[in-house]
Amino acid sequence: MSLAAHGFLSPSGVEIAFLLVGLVTFGAALVTVTTKQLVHAALWLVVTLGGLAVEYLLLTAEFIAWVQVLIYLGSVVVLLLFGLMLTKAPVGRSPDADSGNRPVALAVAVAAAVSLVWVVVDAFRTTWIDLDGPAQGSTEVTGHFLFRNWVLPFEALSVLLLAALVGAIVLSRKRATATRNSRSGKEQR
Questions:
Q1: Average pLDDT per block of 10 residues along the chain, 189 residues long
Q2: Distance CA 181, CA 175 (A)
Q3: Amino acid 184: pLDDT
Q4: What distance in Å separates the CA atoms of residue 25 and residue 51, rounded to the nearest whole number?
Q5: Is residue 59 part of a domain?
Q6: Whether 155 and 94 share a structural domain
Q7: Cα end-to-end distance, the chain, whole Å
Q8: DSSP alpha helix (H) spans, 124-150
Q9: 3-class SS of residue 110
Q10: Of 62, 99, 164, 171, which has the fewest Cβ atoms less than 10 A away?
């Protein structure tokens, strides 16, 4: 007896896990952008980025999954939380986090999502994956793409993150200095 081929109506366990993790990741992303508490948004971002790493593992792109964990979960989220602490952002609900333009923001987000899906589908409509070459998620192929095509954008991103960190430190020092100066002015009177 021959085994029946996988089809759309008979998903494998990996496909079911991919769908379930994708739904959890999508839900965490929605909570990230809709919560009014900044620290909670950063923590939901951890769940979102962790879900993406699991999706990469399910796609057998282990190197990309570990890069996701090390760079995004290990660095970017820590930098974000560090910036929140340095700028003394409010821990609880922040009335400044909601501008009242939710319908406009939703319309822009939907328009951006539709246009992004349209561009990606249109760009890869006739693209075929070469299954005879090295696996697309392998370290060899990823290193080739990174060090040939994407070195400059990665370096630009690292400079941008460094500038954000320095900016957060400068902002926190100005506020601390202003607070100290106002206190010493009151004490001298």
A1: 57 88 94 84 90 91 86 82 73 65 86 92 78 67 79 86 85 69 61
A2: 10
A3: 62
A4: 5
A5: yes
A6: no
A7: 96
A8: 139-149
A9: helix
A10: 99
Q: What is the pLDDT, as a whole number, of residue 8? A: 60
The whole-model pTM stands at 0.60
Q: Is 169 in the same domain as 94?
A: no
Structure-token match 């340095």, residue found:
86
Helices (H), the chain: 13-34, 38-58, 62-67, 77-86, 102-123, 139-149, 151-188
Q: Which residue has tokens 């939703």?
A: 106
Integer CA distances (angstroms), 76 to 21, 25, 64, in order: 22, 18, 16
pLDDT at 48: 94
Per the structure, the complete domain to which residue 154 belongs is given by 150-189
Q: Identify the residue whose tokens are 């370290």.
A: 139
CA–CA dist 116, 133 (Å, integer): 29
Contacts of 67 (CB under 8 A, 6+ apart): none
Cα distance between residue 56 and residue 137, in whole Å: 9
Residue 2, domain member (yes or no): no
The vertex-33 CA angle with 32 and 36, nearest 5°, equals 85
Q: What CA–CA distance (Å, rounded) separates 111 from 119?
A: 12
Total domain count for the chain? 2
The CATH number assigned to the domain holding 90 equals 1.20.120.1200
Residues 26, 91, single domain; the answer is yes
